[in-house]
Amino acid sequence: MPSNRSVSDAPITQFINCRILREHELHREDLWVREGRILDPEKLFFDEQGYADKRVDCEGSIIAPGFIDVQINGGFGIDFSQASDDVGAGVSSVAKKVLEHGVTSFCPTLVTSPPAVYHKVLPQVKVHNGGQHGAGVLGFHLEGPFISVEKKGAHPEQYLRTFQSGGIDDLMETYGGLDNVAMVTLAPELASSQSVVRELCQRGITVSLGHSVANLSQAEEAVQHGASFITHLFNAMLPFHHRDPGIVGLLTSDQVPAGRTVYYGMIADGIHTNPAALRIAHRAHPSGLVLVTDAIAAMGLPPGRHTLGQQVIEIQGLHAYVAGTKTLSGSIATVCVCVCVFTGCSVEEALEAASLHPAQLLGISHRKGNLDYGSDADLILLDDTLDIKATYISGEEVWRKAP
To answer: What are the strands of the beta sheet with 304-308, ordered from one edge?
Structure first.
């Protein structure tokens, strides 16, 4: 125990023989944890004369912040957009299973659905911290139904909506409420969308632009009203054109307010986006990249037919299509697969795109997404091939790969 009992009686864990991802670089130093948070060893040694109660030999592993997935529709047979009397059990099941893929926090994502689905699903899942029971829930990501008919992708057209009442009233009528909602994806070209963007941001909800035919000026206006994310860049939006680059142009726009960052999600599964396109985006705006899975219920299951909200999805190899079409509908990739597929950058950049950047996007980087002193000790151990060896939440081991 630390000799200065006035500070804390809680045990201290020291991770040794490791390389820590901190400040965009890997450092060969130990990591200290107490009461679920990362300790400053200098203060521990000199102010408290404290020492470790437990040592974890990392055997040369990389220690990185736990992954944060801000767009995951389900997995392992669970579809978050399917209304049931126990949605929480499904979310908990996925939360437990994503631990082995390095995910310590996530945003359960609902695709375009009828109002009755939102009214039933949303009240059942609350924001909560992770632990032995599984990864933490940061709040829902509501992708639709206020999106473009032309760029609906796998979203069912009959449930798409516009802002007929002029804004926030339409959201409340559709969703039933905004408690435990972290993010909303909408199309900024829809009439009255800008007032909705402003209202959502004032409520602390992240606004993402996607499934849209917006031109660059419409996208810039949304950002000026508070929008800060692009849902799966390149997919379900106008293609880049040199006279009007559309939403893609936000990556290098000079109309983004000073001090603001526009983040963009990318599904790095080798299917949704050509690796060359991913590298172009990253080189244009490296600090904004957020790796997402857009995983559906079929993640972790064999090929066959599954669901995504109101749609039937067919898995053919590594592709997920709306049944009977060639329309991509989410992925079956895990975050660790996306990190490994993301080539053309450093290991540090790939890891931060799945941890630090999503935390910054959601405004929680003061406690998650990094290994700074005082941050939550949500972390993963990886080998040099970026294979996950163990996952920790609040400094406690919640999953370890079998030897």
So the answer is: 304-308, 311-316, 319-322
The rounded distance, in Å, linking the Cα atoms of 275 and 343 is 7
Euclidean distance between the first and the last CA atom of the chain, given in angstroms as a whole number: 31
Query: pLDDT per residue over 365-377, tens digit each?
Result: 999 999 999 999 9
3-class DSSP assignment, residue 181 = strand
The active-site residue out of 69, 294, 376, 378 is: 294
pLDDT tens, position by position, 90-123: 999 999 999 999 999 999 999 999 999 999 999 9
Provide the H-helix boundaries in 332-391.
335-341, 347-353, 356-362
Chain centre to alpha carbon of residue 185: 13
Instruction: In whole angstroms, give the CA distance from residue 101 to residue 80.
Output: 19
Coil, strand or helix at 386: coil
How many angstroms separate the CA atoms of 85 and 115, rounded?
Answer: 16
Please state whether the peptide bond connecting residue 145 to the residue before it is cis, i.e. omega within 30 degrees of 0. Answer: yes
Is-contact 12 34, C-beta < 8 A? yes
Specify which residues 103 forms β-bridges with: 67
Q: What is the pTM of this model?
A: 0.96
Q: Is 86 a catalytic residue?
A: no
